[in-house]
Specification:
Its EC number is 3.4.16.4. Helix 4 packs across helix 5 (about 125-140). This protein is of the alpha+beta class. A five-stranded antiparallel beta sheet has the order 3-2-10-9-8, sandwiched between helices. It has two domains: about 1-260, DD-peptidase/beta-lactamase superfamily (Beta-lactamase); about 265-365, D-Ala-D-Ala carboxypeptidase, C-terminal domain (Peptidoglycan synthesis regulatory factor (PBP3), Domain 2, Sandwich). It is globular and about 70 Å long. It has helices at about 45-60, 75-80, 100-110, 110-120, 125-140, 160-175, 245-260, 355-365, and strands at about 1-5, 20-25, 30-35, 70, 95, 185-190, 190-195, 205-215, 220-230, 230-240, 260-265, 275, 285-290, 295-300, 305-310, 325-335, 335-345.
């Protein structure tokens, strides 16, 4: 099942957050944004990228949940109790299982746990940060750069609300076997019990992740995810003044997203949406279809305002292969773009014979394509 591609579909809503994004998980469609691509200090939300690297190492077989990593003096001093930040209270020179370190990073936001993971995997935290940036480039996160595993303040460490939402989406999609950790309500280590810093997990609106963050300069933020029925949303709020305001603005954003939109399916799996001309092809055009059914989430009560256009770069040149992405369906409400869906070639179109190519050349020359 394929939904719309990511585009801006904002309707009447606002938030106190300085930065915000609300994203449909299945499609990546952004249905609300506020300074989504502005550079921000990610604080402990950085740890989502730390976890992405750790989970990739586990999937590759280079690390297991039962491996134990050493608590160095650097991890203990920089991220431990003496640092004054969020901590696991790991003991100096102890060894801790990877699974416990992962749980601490998620539930307790343990800075010491994040550094222990970074050093255990890469030897040093700067080397681990290079791995974080390599993965960020692979995911197309152009607005992010990481210098440490914790999110502790550094002028060269930054991200965007959109990138943070994309990291959350990646974790949910690629590592469902680990996602249950994000919803755990508490964790105890070294005889100290700490509640999950994501307070929305306990309020009954379906929130089951992902990560909070705070520094004095950046304010309070969170990357949140909730599933209601067959739809999952990912929300980001950041730059708020308190934990209470963070929880309230996050709740409002997610609740609005759940209730303000309806799902419609204008094209079933395999339905032809339109045709694109093929210059010099063995056929004059090629049918365009979605990758499965095309389903859109649109503001409730907006059906009367809807119009749509088919867009592709003309002329297409052969050979066109079945499954090539060749166009886009764009849906508008009162001339505002609300969603878009990628379109693909329904069949192969090879190069035509000389007569076909000559005819098409004359036709396209006459209408100004050449």
């Amino acid at each position: 099942m394929v939904f719309a591609a990511p585009v801006f579909a904002q309707v009447d809503f606002d938030t106190k957050a300085r930065f915000a994004v609300l994203m449909d998980y299945e499609s990546g469609a952004v249905i609300f944004q506020k300074d989504a691509d502005a550079r921000l200090e990610p604080a402990s939300m950085t740890k989502l990228m730390t976890l992405a690297v750790v989970f990739n190492e586990i999937r590759a077989g280079r690390v297991s949940l039962d491996d134990t990593f050493f608590v160095s003096e650097n991890a203990w001093r920089t991220g431990g109790a003496a640092s004054g930040g969020s901590t696991m209270f790991a003991e100096l020179n102890s060894q801790i299982r990877v699974e416990d370190l992962i749980r601490s990073v998620i539930i307790q936001s343990g800075n010491d746990a994040a550094i222990v993971l970074a050093e255990g995997i890469a030897g040093t935290e700067p080397t681990f940060a290079a791995m974080m940036n390599e993965l960020a480039r692979e995911l197309g996160l152009e607005g992010s750069n990481f210098t440490n595993s914790t999110g502790l303040p550094d002028p060269d460490e930054y991200s965007t609300a959109r990138d943070l939402a994309e990291i959350g989406r990646y974790l949910i999609r690629e590592f469902p076997e680990f996602y249950h950790y994000f919803a755990e309500p508490e964790m105890e280590w070294n005889n100290i019990k700490q509640a999950n810093r994501n307070s929305l997990i306990e309020v009954g609106i379906g929130v089951d992740g992902l990560k909070t963050g705070h520094t004095q300069a950046a304010g309070y933020g969170a990357v949140l995810s909730t599933a209601q029925g067959d739809r999952r949303l990912i929300g980001v709020v950041h730059g708020l003044t308190s934990m209470r305001e963070r929880a309230e603005e996050g709740r409002k954003l997610l609740t609005w997203g759940q209730r303000a939109f309806e799902r419609i399916t204008p094209y079933a799996d395999g339905a032809v949406v339109g045709y694109a001309d093929v210059y010099g092809g063995e056929a004059p055009n090629v049918a365009m279809v979605g990758d499965g059914e095309i389903a859109l989430y649109l503001p409730r009560g907006s059906r009367q305002c809807l119009t749509a256009t088919l867009n592709y770069t003309a002329p297409l040149l052969p050979p066109v292969r079945q499954g090539d992405r060749i166009g886009e369906l764009r849906v508008f409400c009162n001339d505002q773009l609300v969603q878009a869906a990628p379109l693909y070639a329904a069949e192969d179109v090879g190069q035509g014979d000389l007569i076909r190519r000559a005819t098409d050349a004359l036709k396209h020359l006459a209408i100004g394509w050449l």
